[in-house]
Amino acid sequence: MNLNKYLDVSPEVAEAVKAGKPVVALESTIISHGMPYPQNVETALKVEEIIRQNGAVPATIAIIGGRLKAGLSHEEIEYLGKEGVKVNKASRRDLAVLVARGADGATTVTTTMIIAHMAGIRIFATGGIGGVHRGAEITMDISADLEELAHTPVMVVCAGAKSILDLGLTLEYLETHGVPVIGYGTEELPAFYTRSSGFGVDYRIDAPDELAKAFHVQQELGLGGGMLVTNPIPQEYSMDPAVINKAIDDAVEAAKAQGIHGKETTPFLLARIKDITGGDSLDSNIQLVFNNARLAAKTAVELSKL
Ligand code: PSU
Ligand code: MN
Question: What are the tens digits of pLDDT across the range 210-223?
């Protein structure tokens, strides 16, 4: 554990990490910017419960009053959920200033990986990751999440990426940076709301112990960097591709027309898709996060045995 003077690890998480027990990190941008209140808080608390039911300790991560936090109280989760988009969305470039100012920050995949690693946590469950945006050949809008996956040794369990992104370019970027992209029980990259995207993953793995072993070997080889595990949404919650792809295309058009850019792009698109689909996408979103939490917890249990 590389304990940092700016980091507060909750007693339960610290004890579990020290004892080599399974721990799963969770992000907070999904709470503040990814879902509306109160479903965001309900989901965040339920995800923690699912991780416990599957034998691991949850560590929700955020910046509160300038402190990097690994392991939040229910009151802190409620606070982030209620504040919503008023909380700063904190990527790598935001960390220093927010901490120096004693401000709050909702952690993205990037900053959750950074803080998880500082706290000695190796696995992180979320919904979707950022990636290479459509039109990035002009805008250069490429999420810092990809760079973090290249460097920070944390396994990220997600449901693939939404086609608000250019999925092909996202895979190219990950390939260049040496990030293994694993399909859990699938050869195809899942597209978040749907189980298929038409793009292949690097490897298919069918069991948590095999995921744990691959990640363990990656670290023992000294390769560093993260691993991206893409876990398809359960069939019964997946959306009609025609409906969701139309909503995504419309959201991307609206963002372009309104000149949305920078850190606002992803939250704008997520909110817009939810509005267009009348909340159906929110139900799917919640269910796929639960599904990822289960897989991450089971994998953390296996990893703790190695
Ligand atoms: N994609 C989703 N849901 C999310 C996010 C992305 O489907 O909640 C959030 C995550 O916190 C992710 C961040 O790390 O947005 C990426 O933002 P950007 O594209 O600005 O890097
Ligand atoms: Mn961006």
Answer: 999 999 999 999 99
